[in-house]
Amino acid sequence: MTSTQKIAGPAEAEASSELLSAWLDGELEPARAGALLDRLKRDPNLLVQFEAFNVAGDAMRSHEVAACHAPGLVRRVGRALETEPTGLSPGALSGSKVRRHVATGITVVAAAAMLVVFVLPQLRGPDVAPQAGGAVAAAGHVPDKGPGKAAGPNTLAARSPQLDAYFRAHRELAATGVMPSAAAYIRSSGEQDR
Amino acid sequence: MNERDADWQLVTRVQRGDKQAYELLVSKYQRRITRLLSRIIRDPSDIEDVAQDAFIKAYRALPSFRGESAFYTWLYRIAINTAKNHFAAQGRRAPTRMATELEDAENSEDALVLRDVATPDAVLLSKQVGEAVNRAIERLPEDLRTAIVLRELEGMSYDEIANAMNCPVGTVRSRIFRAREAIAAELRPLLGTREDRRW
Fold first, then answer.
1. Start-end ranges of CATH 1.10.1740.10 in chain B?
2. What percent of chain A has pLDDT over 90?
3. What's the pLDDT score for residue A66?
4. B38: which chain A residues are within 8 Å (Cβ-Cβ)?
5. What does the angle CA B107 – CA B111 – CA B114 come to, to the nearest 5 degrees?
6. B127/A63 CB distance under 8 A
7. For residues B145 and B152, what is the distance between their CA atoms, to the nearest angstrom?
8. Chain A: residue nearest B45 by CA?
9. Do A63 and B129 touch (CB under 8 A)?
10. Across the interface, which of A21, A59, A80 has its CB nearest the CB of B52?
């Protein structure tokens, strides 16, 4: 017997056995059933009672079933289970549903914030985004503000100088007819941003 | 709460990673599964192996068990399939009549009308168990006997028994508990178990 196993006194043991008998019949409140099952794991005598009551029930319903008692089977299955990975059911984790919903909500909000702070300024082009961008300033690029284009709080993010260079090259190439079929779209898209 | 709910409590514990809870389910249903397999498989040494296999398969599948059916109904189907696989693994098929019955039995235990292949020892033990149970019940005081018979054989709830016996539910609970103890005590020597040892 391990140190975690506990044997109850006679009165306590009898009370537990009676509760166990009621639980087997489905006649115990769920709250008490939980405590009883915890106790069943710790108390070997209660476990003996559990098996005895089941045998008695089987014997009353069918002598043939009770006679099929295989004493070593539970131990054999128990030993085999030791090497089995513990399979957790997604359904059994339903207790953490609220936590999962909160986490999902936070993830969505964070993704939206990332989109507003970092991605939208990038898509709008160099004129709006890097108002306070130290990196841009360091690269010597001074953005020209269009009319009515006040810098919002979402333009505080620094933008990579390489990305600005890419946008500049893109506009230049589009203007010189390297991609003539796309030029109209690129220009109109740029105009919208301004 | 009913008896099915008690199983479901154990199932949800297993699904949360409690292997000991599964051992309780094995302990509870091992005789019914062994009995079922003994009607399908002739060799007694194979029966226990297949029973063990069935319980392990059920354990592996338990994360996906949602409780749409009773745990035993679900376990029963796994045991039938494990028996079929046992025949297949041995390179032989179940006898034609049995194969048909196994197909039917997969959906309903009532369909299982297989011939009984019990050994003489099993038949004798079954007879002795029957006699021991009858002896224990006859020795019980009448109020305990009535309570346990209404519960185990008639399947009545404690409330129904309390109404029938005109006594509080707590008294019914106590009577059923004492009757079970007496019957189990009568069965102990027969099944080779001691009071302080697991069955």
1. 3-111
2. 21
3. 86
4. 68
5. 125
6. yes
7. 11
8. A70
9. yes
10. A80
Chain B CB within 8 Å of residue A17 CB: yes
Residue A185 is predicted with a pLDDT of 55
- CA angle (A161 as vertex; A159, A166 as ends), nearest 5: 105
CATH for the stretch B3-111: 1.10.1740.10
- Cα distance between residue B123 and residue B128, in whole Å: 9
Q: Which residues contact B113 (CB under 8 A, 6 or more apart)?
A: B101
Tell me the whole-structure pTM to 2 decimals. Answer: 0.67
Does B185 have pLDDT greater than 90?
Answer: yes
Which chain B residues are within 8 Å of A27, Cβ to Cβ? 1, 157-158, 173
Tell me if chain B has a CB within 8 Å of the CB of A140: no
Range(s) for CATH 1.10.10.10 in chain B? 120-187
CATH number of B120-187: 1.10.10.10
Structure confidence by residue, pLDDT tens digits, A143-188: 444 444 444 444 445 667 788 888 788 777 665 555 555 555 555 5
- The pLDDT tens digits of the residues spanning A122-140 come to 776 655 544 444 444 444 4
Contact with chain B for residue A10, Cβ under 8 A = no
pLDDT computed for residue A71 by the predictor: 78
- The answer to whether B10 and B23 are in contact (CB under 8 A) is no
